[in-house]
Write a structure and sequence with these properties.
Layout (H helix, E strand, L loop, with lengths): L1 H16 L1 H11 L3 H6 L6 E4 L3 E5 L4 E3 L2 E4 L11 E6 L11 E4 L4 E2 L3 E3 L10 E3 L8 E9 L2 E4 L5 E6 L6 E5 L8 E10 L7 E4 L7 E5 L5 E10 L6 E11 L2 E11 L3 E11 L9 E11 L3 E8 L2 E7 L2 E5 L4 E9 L2 E4 L3 E3 L4 H35 L1 H4 L2 H12 L1
Parallel strand pairs: 2-12
Antiparallel strand pairs: 1-4, 3-9, 5-6, 5-10, 6-7, 8-9, 10-11, 10-12, 13-14, 14-17, 15-18, 16-17, 18-19, 20-21, 21-24, 22-23, 22-25, 25-26, 25-27
The structure holds 2-acetamido-2-deoxy-beta-D-glucopyranose (12 copies).
Amino acid sequence: MLSEMKDHQSLMAALSENVLIVRMLLSVIFLPGASAGCGAITPVLFSTTPNFMEGLSGSCLQIPCSFNSTDPRYDITRPIYGVWLKATTAFNVTPSSVIFNSSKSVNIYQLEMIGNLTEKNCTTLFSDLNTSYTDRYFFRIESGPVRATACADPLQITVKDSPWSPSINISGGDLKEHQSVTITCSALTPCPHSPPELTWNLQQDSHRQTEKNTDGTFTTKIQENITLSDTHDGYIRCSARYPVNGGNKTAETAVTLSVSYAPRNTSASISPSGLVSAGSWVELNCSSRAKPPASFTWFWNSKHGTINVSVGQVYSFNVTEGGEFYCLATNDLGHQTSSVIRVSIKDNQVSGFTVHIILKILGIIMLYSTIILLECWFRFFKKPKMKTQEPTYVNSEMAKES
Ligand SMILES: *[C@@H]1O[C@H](CO)[C@@H](O)[C@H](O)[C@H]1NC(C)=O
Ligand SMILES: *[C@@H]1O[C@H](CO)[C@@H](O)[C@H](O)[C@H]1NC(C)=O
Ligand SMILES: *[C@@H]1O[C@H](CO)[C@@H](O)[C@H](O)[C@H]1NC(C)=O
Ligand SMILES: *[C@@H]1O[C@H](CO)[C@@H](O)[C@H](O)[C@H]1NC(C)=O
Ligand SMILES: *[C@@H]1O[C@H](CO)[C@@H](O)[C@H](O)[C@H]1NC(C)=O
Ligand SMILES: *[C@@H]1O[C@H](CO)[C@@H](O)[C@H](O)[C@H]1NC(C)=O
Ligand SMILES: *[C@@H]1O[C@H](CO)[C@@H](O)[C@H](O)[C@H]1NC(C)=O
Ligand SMILES: *[C@@H]1O[C@H](CO)[C@@H](O)[C@H](O)[C@H]1NC(C)=O
Ligand SMILES: *[C@@H]1O[C@H](CO)[C@@H](O)[C@H](O)[C@H]1NC(C)=O
Ligand SMILES: *[C@@H]1O[C@H](CO)[C@@H](O)[C@H](O)[C@H]1NC(C)=O
Ligand SMILES: *[C@@H]1O[C@H](CO)[C@@H](O)[C@H](O)[C@H]1NC(C)=O
Ligand SMILES: *[C@@H]1O[C@H](CO)[C@@H](O)[C@H](O)[C@H]1NC(C)=O
């Protein structure tokens, strides 16, 4: 802070040494618009151009321009020369400030006067922009005794290396399905002779138009009238490809397109799937695609008609009797029902019958086993007579083997 103040004080001291310099600086830096450009001089030439223009390096720039003069000596029957000056103010003009003279005596930046000066049209084309062209320009006419600069009408030109992102405009109605809207992608077109190529993720063959704006500049656009559907919910992307010397320069824009739509793809699922036993829990789950999200209601096709049994995405209940269920998905835009889902209960009578058969079979098997055992028992009691002789035979055989 202290050093800043010292700097400031020493600067002020230096400036007060020469009041004239201070005045000059003030007149250049602080005085606005017309006075800064024209000083004490009353302008006699007015040019109408945008105050600011942007161009793309490697491309062209068309400057819409018209002029009028209040100089009484101005005479349209005399030859008129249009001159462009490159200068911060119309005051500090030097011979090197002249970059173009329509007499073709000077043309540093390859300008072309495409307007008819006799018709007070000074429309000018920069054919190949370079970032070093960024500056302030003034228009001037020289015709007989009239030699005037449009000192109050500076034109600031900025030459950029990167192009402008296009803009996307959606108009007409709410963003709901079945609504018809007009979607426009538009791009600045400083060079109407080689307008940008526009492409987007809607129709591929959209017709490109380059239109003149009220200030004489141009805009290129593509436009589609579309009837919205759930498929448009998402993004719109548009890209502008500007042709420049030796290639293209591209910029892209994306905007969210949020389209509301009635429930779609509504379906119901059951867990566990398959047969369930009475007295167990089942969970029915309803799902649906909808914007805004749907709310759900569950219905049961009972013997007494359809009953609203639950509200909410998931319906869990203790199964007492089977039946058909379905869900209804609803939002502001409409509703949709799922297909019917069957809850089937395992049949207990069938399983009792099965147990009965198994018991019968077991009984029969046991009965037969008893008979076979008895048979064996009887044979065992008959055999002992023969078995008394056998041990010697067996023993001798065993002896032989060993
Ligand atoms: C010239 O144009 C300026 C601004 O464009 C306007 O204010 C002025 O009235 C015009 N003068 C004549 C003589 O047309
Ligand atoms: C523009 O060209 C004309 C015709 O050659 C000449 O009279 C005039 O002085 C030139 N002006 C400038 C500023 O070069
Ligand atoms: C001036 O000339 C340009 C280029 O020929 C033309 O496009 C434009 O319409 C003219 N402006 C007026 C106001 O006549
Ligand atoms: C410019 O306009 C004048 C008057 O309308 C016309 O006589 C002249 O032929 C035009 N010049 C050109 C080059 O078109
Ligand atoms: C831009 O202009 C300057 C001076 O006129 C030149 O030195 C430079 O090479 C130019 N750049 C391009 C890309 O043409
Ligand atoms: C979109 O276009 C409409 C009509 O063409 C216009 O009224 C509106 O201002 C534009 N909106 C934007 C953001 O450019
Ligand atoms: C879109 O509809 C508007 C009128 O609603 C019409 O003026 C315009 O030409 C249509 N645009 C296209 C590309 O069909
Ligand atoms: C520039 O873009 C055009 C289409 O707009 C394309 O045909 C051309 O091949 C591109 N050129 C280069 C050098 O990429
Ligand atoms: C959703 O429903 C649409 C018809 O409305 C159908 O084309 C699409 O295949 C369905 N998607 C799924 C994942 O079932
Ligand atoms: C289902 O209900 C029956 C009868 O009310 C009950 O006995 C059984 O425990 C319940 N089951 C569960 C899992 O709560
Ligand atoms: C219901 O189903 C949806 C979609 O299949 C799933 O995301 C969700 O987790 C399920 N909910 C339950 C409680 O199972
Ligand atoms: C279902 O019943 C609930 C309350 O039990 C009620 O809030 C809801 O509106 C009903 N839904 C339908 C579609 O009848």
